[in-house]
Amino acid sequence: MLLKQGKAFSSFSVNDVPKAKDFYGKTLGLDVSESNGLLRLHLGPGNEALAYPKPNHSPATFTILNFPWRA
Length: 71
What we know:
Helices cover 21% and strands 34% of the residues. By secondary structure, it is an alpha+beta fold. Strands 1-4-3-2 form a 4-stranded mixed β-sheet, with helices on one face.
């Protein structure tokens, strides 16, 4: 099956792309790139998430991005 051979990625909406870019890039320190109004969050080798603008955006009421914690 073709889907088993492809690489999946996560995406979520934001209400303000510049603020999201600032938050994920400056506050969290992630590598972020912007193209055609979309943000790509580079989460490590070969891993990324896509953040896209959405009219009437409503913040998620569930976890959309997880980072492992290592003490």
